[in-house]
Amino acid sequence: MATDEDGIRTTIAQYCHFCDDGRFEEWADLYTEDAVFEVFGTEHRGRETVRAFIEKAQPPEKRGKHVCFNSVIEVTGDTARAWTDFIFLATTPEGPAITNTGRYHDRFRRDPDRWRFVERHIVFPGEDQ
């Protein structure tokens, strides 16, 4: 039987798979309607705004591979928090190269069919954790 932590890890993994594959409709469905996605100091609010941002930010030539690890998950009823380290491998003329690393700070809400992101804040090294 899957645990709450398993369900949250699945959502985190699907974030990577869907984004890397350009499956932005499925990627956006990982978020609640009122979700907040923050990266590079800019907040994007609402599922459709978040989707529009990622489609523009991840055209085929900029896609690579997100790798997530070291998730720490705290579940409280139908909500949860998680902190997950990540690296991003970009495709370069010389081959794959790590171009970003950081930590995801997430809040989740349990919906009837899955755990969804309520908030995702991407924190890069040197930024306030």
Fold and architecture overview:
Helices cover 26% and strands 50% of the residues. It has 129 residues and is α+β, with helices and mostly antiparallel strands. It has one domain (4-123): Nuclear Transport Factor 2, Chain: A (Roll), CATH 3.10.450. Strands 2-1-6-5-4-3 form a six-stranded mixed beta sheet. The mean pLDDT is 96.
Task: Summarize the topology.
Blueprint lengths: L3 H17 L3 H5 L2 E9 L2 E4 L1 H11 L6 E13 L2 E14 L2 E16 L4 E9 L6
Note the main attributes of this structure:
alpha+beta, 3 helices, 129 residues
CATH class label: Alpha Beta
The strand line-up of the biggest sheet is 2-1-6-5-4-3
Estimate what percentage of residues fall within beta strands. Answer: over 45%
How would you classify the helix and strand content by structural class? alpha+beta
What ranges have pLDDT less than 50 throughout 5 or more consecutive residues? none
Order of helices and strands: HHEEHEEEE
In CATH terms, what is the fold-level topology? Nuclear Transport Factor 2, Chain: A
Total helical segments = 3
* Major sheet details: 6 strands, mixed
Task: Compute the number of strand runs.
Answer: 6
